[in-house]
Amino acid sequence: MSRLRDFAIEAPWGLQRWRQFERLTADLEQGGVLWPLKGQPQTLERTTVTVDLRKEWASHAPFGAGRRRSEFEPGRVALEAADGTLLEELRDPRRSFAGHTLQTPWTELQLAYFAGCAMWAYLNTPFLLAWPGVETEEIEPWRTGEGLWRRLAVRFPAEIATHCAVQTLYFDAEGLLKRHDYDVEIAGNAPGAHLVDDYVDVSGIRFPTKRRIFARQPDGSFSEEPLVVSIDLSNIRLS
């Protein structure tokens, strides 16, 4: 356990405050080249995402046309009607991505898995660092035009479904998350540099509302073209 880990958890106003809530909901607008590449250009272009703060669960509603909604857990992903009627489901969904590359199209259930897995982790970070089995180590800092960003190498246990087992988080002098690096295993281990910005205060906790993901190069650099994924959050609420 590193001092940076503790600093990062407290910077958005603390783990004790976070644990007063059970769910987070936000309006979501997404863009970038990934969605059409995967054959899902508009399914989650504008939607509302809800994530659980105490277990790995997420839902997007609406999920495409027909007032459907998704339900994600590590071992199961499903699509439901607005009244909760099960429309289709996939058990052990991560196995369905075997052999995928970045260009392999996704089914709607695979999209629901990816989006649920990703947004649950994004919206629970940095508090996810306090989960049982999550290991952290501070590594050498990264120099930017804004000064040095301290970096944390994070290893996730197998029971947490996430992009990959080892990821890197970058924090500014205030302890706020500024960048998140990972390889997307279910998309051919595509390397991403995920930048976060535009923090707002929600119920006493600071959240980034602007996320931009680019293709990461082996030296850690990235180009802003193409924009792989854009995520803009608004109307964030905790309950």
Walkthrough of the structure:
With 239 residues, the protein is mainly β. The chain has one domain: outer membrane lipoprotein receptor (LolB), chain A, CATH 2.50.20. The protein is 14% helix and 43% strand. The chain has helices at residues 3-10, 15-18, 34-37, 108-124, and strands at residues 23-31, 46-52, 58-61, 69-73, 76-80, 86-91, 135-144, 147-155, 166-171, 177-184, 190-202, 205-215, 229-238. The strands form two sheets. It has a ten-stranded antiparallel sheet with strand order 3-2-1-13-12-11-10-9-8-7. A three-stranded antiparallel sheet has the order 4-5-6, covered by helices on one side. A hairpin with a 5-residue loop joins strand 5 and strand 6. It is globular and about 50 Å long. The two termini are 29 Å apart. The model has no long low-confidence stretch (mean pLDDT 96).
Key terms for this structure?
single chain, about 240 residues, outer membrane lipoprotein receptor (LolB), chain A, 10-stranded antiparallel beta sheet, about 15% helix, globular
| Largest sheet, spatial ordering of strands | 3-2-1-13-12-11-10-9-8-7
The residue ranges in which pLDDT falls below 50 over 5 or more consecutive positions are none
The CATH architecture comes to Clam
Find the structural class using helix and strand composition. Answer: mainly beta
Helix proportion: 10-25%
